[in-house]
Amino acid sequence: MMTKTRIQTLDMVYIGIGIALISVCSWISVPTAVPFTLQTFAVFLVLLLLGGKRGTLATTLYVILGALGLPVFAHFTGGIGIILGSTGGYIIGFIFMGFVYMIMERLFGNRSVPSIIALVIGLIVCYAFGTAWFMYVYTRDTGSVGLLMVLGWCVFPFIIPDLIKLALAFMISKRVRPVIR
């Protein structure tokens, strides 16, 4: 029988591994017409493997570490300037994705279809928050910009790659999750 201290220690280890996974994947850039990182893939995978509570905590701590200046974001960057910059809203959106996943997990359990739906809804929330933040920063710094223009820059090119990342994370989690338990 596990003691409470051992469970808490395991939680910290899993959360630390989750933070490391998101960090490493955010450094991996896939060169395409619109380059993207594997950061979203890692957030999906961490949520699926660790569950809503631990996964959201890992994602939140990842964002905090990056905001504090550790180079955990894409291109080995970090600092509050990244969060306050035009794409920082998408990074903060990962936390909201985690909250959506955690709520859906509590309501429907850790079954496949609700997990996928939770991640898709979480991704939409992440896109919405990130797009609103991008529009605010862009308008403040450069001038007015339309919603369709921003969606064309920041969302539409990433929908298919993000859904592929979600599918890959789901397939990997199905294989790895039984080992974690």
Concise summary:
The protein is an all-alpha fold and 181 residues long. It has helices spanning 4-27, 39-67, 80-84, 88-108, 112-141, 147-154, 156-180; strands spanning 29-30, 36-37. It has one domain: Arp2/3 complex 21 kDa subunit ARPC3 (Orthogonal Bundle).
Fold topology:
Layout: H1 4-27, E1 29-30, E2 36-37, H2 39-67, H3 80-84, H4 88-108, H5 112-141, H6 147-154, H7 156-180
Antiparallel strand pairs: 1-2
Helix pairs in contact: 1-2, 2-4, 2-7, 4-5, 5-6, 5-7
For this entry, give a set of tags.
78% helix; 181 residues; globular; 7 helices; Arp2/3 complex 21 kDa subunit ARPC3; two-stranded antiparallel ribbon; mainly alpha
Protein architecture, described:
The protein has 181 residues and is mainly alpha-helical. The protein has one domain (8-180): Arp2/3 complex 21 kDa subunit ARPC3 (Orthogonal Bundle), CATH 1.10.1760. Helices cover 78% and strands 2% of the residues. The chain has 7 helices and 2 strands. The protein has helices spanning 4-27, 39-67, 80-84, 88-108, 112-141, 147-154, 156-180; strands at 29-30, 36-37. A two-stranded antiparallel ribbon has the order 1-2. A hairpin with a 5-residue loop joins strand 1 (29-30) and strand 2 (36-37). Helix 2 crosses helix 4 and helix 4 runs antiparallel to helix 5 (112-141). The longest helix has 30 residues, at 112-141. It starts with a helix and ends with a helix.
